């Protein structure tokens, strides 16, 4: 685990909160409302005439760090680097969520193509981390 990269992720999270919080109309922090605001921010950026996917790696880094930190804060997960796949969030069930890849996909394809960081966040927090997705795949949790 590269401590310097983790420190950069933490710095990116602080930058996102410091810079985007005052622009938002929500209690900006490591929460779903902020993820929803950031999704709108991405969509607004994508719609600008000067938008160039090839020139936003830094923004993807900042927003991916923020999205991952939101998932960590709300699942009890931790940052994890599995091989060459880049940084992800190791969830309590052993799955890994890749927030940087998801932010990149939303910038590239947009919500209209199904690339929503809010859906990604909700699935990670509400279904994968809790084990509900695994239960559904295995036929439910049994009699209630």
UniProtKB/TrEMBL annotation:
Protein's UniProt name: DUF3806 domain-containing protein
Native organism: Nonomuraea polychroma
